[in-house]
Amino acid sequence: MLTYYRSIGGKLTTVDEYTDGCWINVVTPSHEELRQVSRETGLSMELLQYPLDPDERSRFERDDDGQLLIVLQTSQRLGEDSDIPYDTVPLGILHTDHCLVTVCAQDNQVIRDLTSGMMRHLRTAKKNRLTLQVFLRSAQRFLIDLRRIDKQIEATEDRLEHATRNKELLDLLKLEKSLVYFKTALKANELMMERLKRERLFDLYEDDQDLLNDVLIENLQAIEMTDISTNILTSTVGTFASIISNNVNQVVKILTITTILVAIPTLITSIFGMNVPLPDQEDPWMLWVILGIAFTMSGSIAFLFHRLRWF
């Protein structure tokens, strides 16, 4: 899908076709759509296809024609049925002399935030500033998803206190896997942006330098939050694995004690229920005497277990 944007009167507006100074957003494109973008912008098909690789890492490159490709890792929230709740997806940012192009294999939340007006002062003609704003929103999106992960961890911990199954632990392990992906992506983004700043890949005004510094700070904060969440989650998984094992042991202990207490009356009544002559078997009170002996013994054993604090 191709969408053309242009800032008109200080607002980001959708336009019908390519014009100089526009921003072209490409999402899950077909081969024909890529060819159309290539004809309109002069970008090579090879550069346009790089960001569509799900294993593409954060980097940038400039070809001999001066075309610039920046690949940025962004966070992606997946569905409840996915193996992991959060993943990362590469977002390509391509500069030409007359426009900016973003390419992604999935509908990207970072781009949705920008086009929905969550960031102000977007100028499609200012490609460098717009690129830095994409960087900033990507770092902020990581922070938002990290806070959501922390809330999910807390909710799972509440359920784990009385859990005897592995479902809650598996949920935590999925979140831990997401944090690993986040940490890897954020580190790669940091290295890419530090190199971009060091090599002065494109001209930056003073405000742009400040914006790039803000991006690096936000990215570093996301890395630190990921480290903290990972450490907490690792210790939590180990602790609650022991708690689940202890909960299972408690259940087994209660069942064992219950079996013992029920077995005593069963044993006594079985003896007196045998088809052989027994003392005082004609006495009408003998039934209640037998039951009294059985339940007295069970009560005594239960009292003994209670004194020993076995339950």
Can you characterise this structure?
The protein folds into 2 domains: 2-246, 2-Layer Sandwich (Beta Polymerase, domain 2), CATH 3.30.460; 248-307. 58% of the residues lie in helices and 15% in strands. It has 7 helices and 7 strands. A 7-stranded mixed beta sheet has the order 2-1-3-7-6-5-4. A hairpin with a 5-residue loop joins β4 and β5. The chain starts with a strand and ends with a helix. The mean pLDDT is 80.
Features:
single chain; alpha+beta; Beta Polymerase, domain 2; 2 domains; 7-stranded mixed sheet; 7 helices; 15% strand; coiled coil; transmembrane
How are the SSEs ordered, and which strands pair?
Layout: E1 2-8, E2 11-15, E3 23-27, H1 31-41, H2 45-49, E4 59-62, E5 68-77, E6 86-95, E7 100-104, H3 109-115, H4 127-160, H5 167-199, H6 206-272, H7 286-307
Parallel strand pairs: 3-7
Antiparallel strand pairs: 1-2, 1-3, 4-5, 5-6, 6-7
Number of helices: 7
Shape: rod-shaped
Q: What count of structural domains?
A: 2
* Helical content (DSSP H or I, runs of 4+): 55-70%
Determine the CATH superfamily of the largest domain: CorA soluble domain-like
Protein name: Mg2+/Co2+ transporter
Main location: membrane
Organism: Deinococcus peraridilitoris (strain DSM 19664 / LMG 22246 / CIP 109416 / KR-200)
Transmembrane segments: 254-273, 285-305
